[in-house]
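Researcher: Next sequence.
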Amino acid sequence: MAAEKRTGYLGLGSNVGDSAGHLREAVELLEAEGIEVDAVSSIYVTEPVGEILEQPDFLNAAVRIHTELEPEELLSACKRVEAERGRSFEAPRHSPRPLDVDLLLLDDLELSTDRLTLPHREVRTRRFVLVPLLELDPELTLPDGTRLAEALAALPAGQRVDRRP
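Model: Next structure:
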């Protein structure tokens, strides 16, 4: 009996090398991992946030996926895709990187392990995550019923997110 397909959302980011190329290649590599990519948002130019602010702007996007993988298996697939595009896992958190693939949401799953928290702990607070997610699904909600459009509207000014022409 085949596993049931879940719908999920991934955040993609890059600010090293050919960032647009890294994002495009990430979609192909995810599909090679057996992850069906259903929709891809526009690409957004965003300012760095987090612990290291002195670095180049990021290109960010979101993808809607369908997968039979369990959450930890999906996370491992995302890490393999990052590594394939040259991501170093020894670099400090929030440092420049060729590719970042974050597992943001997976159906209505709520999960907290040593490796993975679902929904992603920063999904409500990061404009560069919310804008592309809401482009894919303006009615998207968290498992607790929080509407992500309301979370975006509640964010303070800042966190520049510009759609790339």
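Model: The mean pLDDT is 94. The longest strand covers residues 58-67.
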